[in-house]
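ESCALATION

Customer reports they have been waiting on this structure for their group meeting. Please prioritize. Original submission:
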Amino acid sequence: MGFCHEFLSMLESASRCQFADDRGMNLVMKPVTTIVVILLAAVSIAHVMRLIFQVEVVANGVDIPFWLSIVGSIVPAGLAWMLWRENRKVNYLKNLPIRKK
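Update from on-call: job pushed to the front of the queue and completed.
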């Protein structure tokens, strides 16, 4: 029973990423949120790289314009940033001490 309890607690602690807040508070980001933020950032970086290296993309004989990569880099980057900020705020509010009257 001791091994199972230790194994489960190890899995639980490994499934969360911890960040230090500027106030010195440890914030916990859920693993799915972390994965989504990373994927959105990767999509944004891929579009920026297409713009930098001027890569032509053709889909089914249709040229994809470069302005679409501008939109494709700004939107995912904004979504990743908002999701990361929202998750930080939610976790920060959970960690606040409760004042009793």
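Sent to customer with the following note: Residues 47 and 72 are 6 Å apart (CA to CA).
Escalation resolved.
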